[in-house]
Design brief:
This protein is α/β, with parallel strands linked by helices. Helix content is about 35%, strand content about 15%. It has a single domain, classed as TIM Barrel, CATH 3.20.20. The chain starts with 10 loop residues before the first helix and ends in a 14-residue tail after the last helix. About 40% of the residues are buried.
């Protein structure tokens, strides 16, 4: 594992590495889409994802690039319900919704509780509503929102890694105990959770990246998480590019993502998904990229092992 003896990673340094934000409209989500997902019922169903335009997250995590589509100040009251309504008018018919706001849904400075009632009215017809939150912001406010909606509420939490030293350097400002405590609180109140797990964050070699991603899956499921999403760490947010220049970060190989997904599915402890967005970033071989992407997608939807792809790049 690499070290950074020459400087301390802080929120200020992370922000100083950034480029410019994209121009966004506080009355519209910056994106929305529908995708298929194996739901907790065991069925493959369409899920709508609304990427809400919101204030920048107060936690400046080292690997995060979500700040690119955020505002500098809190959006006006009513803006978030307006965005959801706009997106629902543009999405195809779906049974489940993800409301991702580039931060924490339960951050009162991002989404005021007085907007909950209208949000709940908009989403009450959906079977499942999934939001995201930093663990330290999970509290009674989650229960008030749960009680307003007629849908099953799920909360996605970034576990990132159970390598304690790396977790500290990610500037996540949380502990493994914070994560486990939040999952326990939600489960006691009939709210399922999913965890985001990083594949090869900075400071780890390729083999270490695989090892710690697998241990993170173990930890999440042992804590009571129902679903885990493996996210290969990408460059492009400024800080990660600085670390790449210093030889402290390198994007993981696509083969490693395959290994970790195979491991997770083999455990049969809960649903495990590989993030398949822009996998070209992690591929060394154009010949097999499409078929590997298709295999990962099929394994995501079926939660069953599919025979490995054979290619000359396996020896590179």
């Amino acid at each position: 594992m690499n070290d950074l003896p020459e400087f301390e990673i802080t929120g200020s340094w992370i922000k100083a590495c950034r480029g410019k934000k994209n121009i966004v409209d506080p009355q519209k989500p910056y994106a929305c889409m529908a995708e298929k997902e194996l739901t907790d019922s065991g069925k493959v169903e369409d899920v709508g994802i609304i990427f809400l335009t919101n204030r920048e997250c107060p936690f400046h995590c080292l690997m995060c690039d979500l700040w690119k589509n955020t505002t500098d100040i809190t959006v006006p009251p009513g803006a978030i319900p307006n965005q959801i309504e706009w997106a629902l008018n543009h999405l195809p018919e779906v049974k489940h919704l993800k409301l991702y706001n580039s931060g924490s849904f339960f951050d009162k400075n991002a989404i005021p509780e007085k907007d909950y009632q209208r949000i709940a009215a908009l989403v009450s017809g959906y079977k499942t509503v999934i939001v995201e939150s930093h663990p330290v912001l999970i509290n009674e406010g989650c229960l008030r929102f749960r009680d307003m909606i007629k849908s099953d509420l799920q909360v996605a939490i970034g576990l990132e890694t159970v390598n304690v030293e790396v977790l500290k350097k990610l500037n996540k400002l949380m502990t493994l105990e914070d994560f486990a405590s939040s999952v326990s609180f939600l489960l006691k109140n009939d709210i399922f959770t999913r965890a985001f797990i990083l594949l090869r964050p900075p400071f780890l070699s390729e083999s270490e990246g695989v090892f710690w991603a697998e241990r993170s899956l173990d930890f999440a499921f042992n804590a009571g998480v129902e679903c885990c999403v493996i996210i290969p760490v990408r460059p492009g947010n400024g800080a990660m590019d600085q670390l790449a220049e210093k030889g402290i970060f390198k994007p993981p190989d696509l083969h490693s993502l395959e290994k970790v997904l195979e491991y997770g599915i083999e455990q049969q402890a809960g649903r495990v998904f590989a993030d398949t967005w822009d996998l070209k970033l992690f591929s060394k071989c154009d010949k097999c990229l499409e078929v590997r992407t298709r295999r990962l997608t099929e394994m995501n939807l079926g939660q069953k092992f599919i025979g490995r792809i054979k290619c000359t790049c396996d020896t590179l």
